Amino acid sequence: MTLIAVTLAAVTALIALEEGGAASLWRHAYLVPVLAAALRFGAVGGGLTAGAAILLSAPLVLPEIERSGLTSEAVEGIVTFAILGLVGVLGGALWARAGRHRRRYELLLTIQRTLADEGTLDVALARLRGTLAGRLAVDQIGLIVRDDDRLVIAGGERVTDDSLAARVLAAGTPMCVTDTGERGWPRRAFATPLLSGGRVVGVLTAERSGDFPAGERAALESIGAHLGLALENARLVSRQRRFAVELEARVAAVRRELEELDRVKSAFVAIASHELRTPLTALQGFSEILAVRRLPPDEVTRLGEVMRREARRLGRIVSDLLDLSRIERGLEPALCRIPVRVESSIEATIELFREASTSHRITTECEPALPVVDADPDALERVLTNLVSNAIKYSPSGSAVRVNARSTAGGVAIEVADAGRGIPAEALGRVFEPYYRVPDAAGAARGTGIGLAVVKALVEAHGGTVRVESAPSMGTRVTVVLPAASRS
Amino acid sequence: MWALDQAYAPRAERLLAETPATLLAGLAIGAAVAVALVDLAVLPASTLRVVGVTAGHGALLATALAWAHAGVASRIVAIALLALAASASLSGTLGAAAYLAPALWIFWLANRGRLEGLSLGGPVPARAVAAGAAAGAGLSFHLLLSATRTLSVQVRADHVGATLAAIAYDVGANVLAAECFFRGVLFTRAARRWPLPAAAGISTGAYLLRYLIDPLLPKSAELVAGAVFYLALLGVINCWLLAWSRTLVPGLVSATLFFAAYRTLGPR
User: Fold this and answer.
1) What are the distances in angstroms from CA B259 to CA B61, B138, B227, B255, B256?
2) Which ipTM score applies to this complex?
3) What is the value of pTM for the model shown?
4) Which residue of B lies nearest to A155 if distances are taken between CA atoms?
5) How many domains does chain A have?
6) Contact A142 B188 (CB under 8 A)
7) What are the domain boundaries of chain B?
8) Which chain B residues touch A192 with a CB distance below 8 Å?
9) Do B5 and A163 count as a contact with CB atoms less than 8 A apart?
10) pLDDT means per 10 residues in chain B (268 residues)?
11) Is residue A314 part of a domain?
């Protein structure tokens, strides 16, 4: 700028020294500082420098016009200055426009490069904001992009509902605010939508103390349109990457589940084989003894009783396996429901256990006048058998197993409680899963891990509920609630 | 960032909001009464000078102070000081020194931080003052050169007292009131609504209008054309200085220098 001022002064001095006035050939030398200013500062710079040249030469030209009128030399001088003004303004405008286009293309290239790097949308947006802040002559810049149902924001913490950015995001048209209302010198804000396929995918906001001229607003709108496309691509790539990661995690989880299932099923086959083999061996052995030996009647009766018990056990296991098979196929257990008195079922089941087991004290307590339930007697017996069997298996010898029945709102609650080892809290949620066995239970007692799964399926098939409460070393209580029969 | 986390409501305030209408009406009535009394020869003709300065510059300065939220007392004191200075200046060159009083009052208010709305009282960058001085000096030099070469005027050094009195009037009334109103508040208010070139156009247009209706401005076509040219240039330059430096001081400096140069001119 100093050089331009010095050149202007030097040219004026040369015109003054020559005393040529408007006709001085030195007047053409003004073109040098005017062009220099136009190339350096644009239309305003070129125009102002041409104006300064006219101002500087006016004291030399005007007296001559006053003295001699508009001579041909004076007109020539005036035309020269008019051309000077035109060259300054037009040259500056064209140069500035070319510069704007060049900067815009450079910026777009930089944007593409910035978004081409791998990373999440949040990271890409923050990086992009840094790039734009370095390239656009604004005080503050913000970027907001819609990512499904969330907003990714760079340049701020949040977007309030009635902010300029929110309005542009909703309306999809650019908005310029000439005063943000802050104290001191007026501060401008401009926001333009980021568009992708005619859809508003975000907003670009800029703030500065100076103006946002029409040319600059148009440039920002154009950048917004390009940014929208580029960011939409980046967003989709980011989402695809996220989906890939999630999918990989899900596949790994499913694979782990399948491996676990496979392991559990293998364990189940081994256990089930053992469980089936034990009563089968007893049946086989005792039946052979009965076939080949002549035994006293009492012994025959005893062996027959053992065989009957083992046959029942075998039957129960097979029934459980069949029910499990139906459950795994998504079918409900087959039921034949009739009105059943819960007290009778409990007593019948408990009687069987009392006959077979002398190691535990089994007590029952039923409220008087319990409602009749609409249930399959066999299914109810299997439910009770499974629960009492578990209570006996997992509680120490000599301890008590309590079976209670009480009426509830609209049904009957049957509780089977023991004073056994209890179930750890982390296993409580899984005890109704097929094949699942509490980790340290396998060593404590025999079992297939399907009993409680069958209980749950049978109870739910009756429209009832089952829940288990337990604390380690405090025992376990399983509560089955069955709805009362409608006619009761 | 304002655009993200602050509520945006389109501006509802009018451009001329908070104008001290009562005070301006009082000044107008006072001026009309004074003119009538002068016509009736109850008051001497010199009273018109006092009334003109008090009503004209007082109205501009009071409006500027009101728009800058400076308080009622500060406006009344400014008008009173202008009236006193105008009265004192009737007694001669030394009396014109009283015009420093309104300038000192504004300086005092600015120093107390009460004139932030006028872009006064904040930091003043030395380079901005230098730019203002350079702009004022450049315009002054051009005025002196072109006026002495084209118009029938010359730089006169034989009326030093009158020149100094006129410069004091510019410092304490003319330049002070015009810059405070046309740049300090009008340009800033307009800039809150429209782009800077439009705001500068409004401010400068009003500035020109103020001088064109001034009864003291010579009425010859050449002088009016010259006044329009230089005042328009001065107005635009001062708007740019304010927008660039965020302080009114460079504009005050450039205008004071320009008017000081103008005061040195006299007929051949």
Assistant:
1) 18, 12, 11, 6, 5
2) 0.77
3) 0.64
4) B1
5) 3
6) no
7) 17-111, 122-267
8) none
9) yes
10) 83 80 92 90 87 92 92 92 92 88 93 88 91 93 82 77 91 94 93 90 94 81 85 94 93 95 84
11) no
